[in-house]
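Batch manifest line 260
LIGAND: adenosine-5'-triphosphate
JOB: complex structure
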Amino acid sequence: MSQPKLKIESLNKWYGSRKGPVHALSDVSLELADNEFVSLVGASGCGKSTLLSIVAGLQGFDNGVLLTDGAPIVGPGLDRGVVFQSYTLLPWLTAQQNVEFALQAAGLSAAECRDVARHHINLVKLDRFADSFPSQLSGGMKQRVAIARALSYRPKMLLMDEPFGALDALTRHQMQELLTQIWEEHRLTVLFVTHDVEEAVYLSDRIIAMSINPGRINSTFHVGLARPRNQDMISTPEFLALQKEVLNAIRAGSQGENEH
Ligand SMILES: Nc1ncnc2c1ncn2[C@@H]1O[C@H](COP(=O)(O)OP(=O)(O)OP(=O)(O)O)[C@@H](O)[C@H]1O
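JOB STATUS: finished
ARTIFACT:
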């Protein structure tokens, strides 16, 4: 049997705080298959961002197992692209240059950087805005640049923390369409954090609902909706029933064990 793309086993993470230790992740175990799209949902503070940043290698954990393709994750790497809610673009560089900058760090020549960056700017449909600076771009466009940048060094895994959380509803739907299209064409493993259950159902193969205090996995939902998906599916009984089930799980997990 092939290795899972991501394997998390009995992972624990504690933070120190003035009020005492916070058990941010308690015995979290999760596997992602190659090309699988998995969303993490749950009440604020259940550890979604912590888990994502640990997988990104941006912070460590106290104990447990964390492997990608069977190898331990010990820090950030080009095999994992990260997109956050805030756009994190360099304001003094154009859209094209922001992507080139990431590629220079990956060791490509100047000509390769230019070509690969242009290809990914086109992929996110920003051809006409390649030479615009972030201040000249809308929120959705800035997030397209961030996605182009994350995809440009061809990661095997895309880690996204509320990437569309700051966008208006229409732009958000457009970005969901774009992401689905890119994911269907290029196939990569995605771990996606969102507060929006509709978004999670629309995008995912699987949804992981987490509980708070301590942060842990409380339920898993397989999304059986056919692909390719379209926004019309959002009003079908099947979609709405799953959305309700996930919402109920989030509600049930929003009061911590430590608070009863
Ligand atoms: N740097 C830190 N120091 C201390 N405690 C932290 C730190 N970062 C997160 N926490 C705590 O760890 C728990 C999990 O936080 P985390 O941000 O991962 O949750 P989340 O589910 O992503 O929340 P949200 O949906 O609000 O972003 C919370 O109790 C939070 O207060």
